[in-house]
Amino acid sequence: xxxxxIARMQHFSVEVSDTDRxxxxxxxxxxFRLTERHAAHEVAAIPVELTFxxxxxxxxxxxLVHNPAKTYRPxxxxxxxxxxxxxxxxxxxxxxxxxxxxRAVLERVRATDTPIVRGPVVHxxxxxxxxxxxxxxxxxYILDPDGxxxxxxxxxxxxDPDGVHRDAAGRRxxxxxxxxx
Length: 181
Ligand SMILES: [Fe+2]
Description:
Elements: E1 12-15, H1 19-28, E2 33-38, E3 49-54, E4 62-66, E5 92-95, H2 99-111, E6 116-122, E7 138-143, E8 149-154, E9 158-159, E10 165-166
Parallel strand pairs: 1-4, 5-8
Antiparallel strand pairs: 2-3, 3-4, 6-7, 7-8, 9-10
This protein binds fe (ii) ion (FE2).
């Protein structure tokens, strides 16, 4: 496959058990705006309720799907405790452009009693507060009303042409390498 034919990964879609509750969460805790919401069967080929939410000026970055014909059961708090079932997703991530913005979101999360299931944590093997893992980003993991795990982060490393990772402060991170350039 030629490189760069696909420009970027863009939206993510999660299945929710209660659309009203999830719209409220994504709007009031995380700052999404509602683009449009549609009922199941509004379009013949779409038997599910679809809700489109955005952070910027594109039509949607998040799609909530609700199937009125489905009986939903709770997700385990930790994805690694989901030991029986089809492959699911582990988490999706939302990026802040600065540490200040990330801290403001963290304050909002705490003020709304949103469950924090991991962090705050710095994913780094060399940072003084690092957890020994990868990417150099500072993150916190929360749960949405259905238990979907959401990572909120800032400062993910970039990859230099020689494969060395560069952190948000512009520092080339010692000991890092990239499998494929
Ligand atoms: Fe992640």
